[in-house]
Amino acid sequence: MPEMPEVESLARFLTAHCVGKTIARVELTAFSALKTYAPPLSALHGLEIESVSRHGKFLDLDASGLHLIFHLARAGWLRWKDELPAAPARPGKGPLALRLRLDDDSGFDLTEAGTQRKLAVYVVSDPAEVPHIAGLGPDPMADDFDQAALDAVLDGAGRAQLKGVLKDQRTLAGIGNAYSDEILHVAKLSPFKASNSLTPDERGVLFHAIKDELADAIRRSEGLAAKDLKSEKKLGMRVHGRTGQPCPVCGDTVAEVSFADSSLQYCPTCQTGGKKLADRRLSKLLK
């Protein structure tokens, strides 16, 4: 799933390639992806793209005050093409969900792999009209997100586990499964530690881990084409997706906890005092 660093990089890529150009046509091929009906997609035709921005994991193309917003979900992606096929996109069983063509015939496809269709597209006059954007928590890369802001998040979460708090978009906008694993590894904190149990020192370490990990991921992705962002993300991971491999910090074996539809990875030595977490949905430290 694309998370904040990849979405931020896509926003910068689209800013460089789309701003100042006019939308010639938007073609929808997966009708389940479109979550709004008024204004219609056709209202975007002939409008100039003035800016591209990010709200958490949502991308927002501002076309003369009308916003095309999309969320790539778990299996979605944006594929840029300097020259799109001349033939109109047709609905079918393939991964293509939407095609946006610019006035110079460049543009992008939104695609989604797999059978679950969760990619979401909106056309709105105000980004706040998208319910999930209206409910987003603070952006940890915003200039005004400081230690006090994180402390308020942790206090408000009570005894909720750190992993879940970092991933909850209503609490913090933009962090997902992968970067929450990486942040907790750098901070040397158990994913199941209660949020309100952190000492002041641990809170400070967590704050800097959040800021540094996300900023470093954005730096690594800077200047890359959209097609290269996925591989760059994978290469930058130390524990996420690396079950059974040695921890690059201490050499212990990276362990995993599996859930119904996801998993997390962590280092027992770095994060849980050498103890392995039970691999079941309501995991607790093994005794």
From TrEMBL:
Its EC number is 3.2.2.23, 4.2.99.18. Keywords: DNA damage, DNA repair, DNA-binding, Glycosidase, Hydrolase, Lyase, Metal-binding, Multifunctional enzyme, Zinc, Zinc-finger. InterPro entries: FPG_cat, FPG_N, H2TH_FPG, Ribosomal_uS13-like_H2TH, Znf_DNA_glyclase/AP_lyase, Znf_FPG/IleRS. The keyword Metal-binding applies. Coiled coil: none annotated. It catalyses: Hydrolysis of DNA containing ring-opened 7-methylguanine residues, releasing 2,6-diamino-4-hydroxy-5-(N-methyl)formamidopyrimidine. Residues 2-109 form the Formamidopyrimidine-DNA glycosylase catalytic domain. GO terms for biological process: base-excision repair. GO terms for molecular function: 8-oxo-7,8-dihydroguanine DNA N-glycosylase activity; class I DNA-(apurinic or apyrimidinic site) endonuclease activity; damaged DNA binding; zinc ion binding. Belongs to the FPG family. This is Formamidopyrimidine-DNA glycosylase. It comes from Microlunatus kandeliicorticis.
